[in-house]
User: What shape does this take?
Amino acid sequence: MNVGLLGAGHIARALAEGWSLPGERPGEPERLTFFDVAPDRAAALAADTGGVAADDVESLVAASDVVIVAVRPPQVQEVLAQIGPHLGSRALVSVAAGVPLERLVALLPDGTPVGRVIPNVAAALRLGVCLFVPGTLNAWRDAVAGLFGICGTLVELDEKDLDVATAVASCMPGYVARWVSAFTEAGVSAGLARETAQTLAVAGARGAAAIVAAAGGPAAVVAAAATPGGMTAAGVAALEEHDIDGAVEAAVRAAASRATRPA
Assistant: This one.
């Protein structure tokens, strides 16, 4: 399967890097083709991932079986107007937040196979989360699911749940990066060298996520780690005192709200 990416920003790069990692997996693209309004950016991504930079959108579509629209939401309408007449029976997948299937279908020729996927940047390491709304992909459904499943955990859901799911999962790298930054600064404030504090925070976050995944959820890990009277219990109590649950809920609500009024 040949895959074309319209746009060469952070998400397009993350997907392309994930698909081009060593170690073959079923459903991997045979060829990646890129187009961006900034030709140098598409050329750089093609060079980094072993792909090809197209001269124009028509050439990208002609070289692709599946076309992935990876532009900012306000640009989607213009892009679909350009490529719609050239799609034929090719599948189109939008990774743009806040542009619903109904809108995508209305902007494309009748019968175009179209779906939505919201990945996150951890797709570059094949550790991403890809939220999948099959839409009208029909015969393309399994192939698209397999393609994005290469980049991490694929979760199929109803479109009505997509904005909140995006706020929880696809935004998670940003949340965790901010969390790591806070722990780094706390370590520095308490006397650690910055490099040491950041190394510890990053390694701790990586290991903690793996333990939670292995345990099947956070409750068992909190119970096991937060021994009464111990250091972890004291720290968890302080987080709760400062309303960690309220802060996280506010973050998710703010992110989900942004999907309905993209910048």
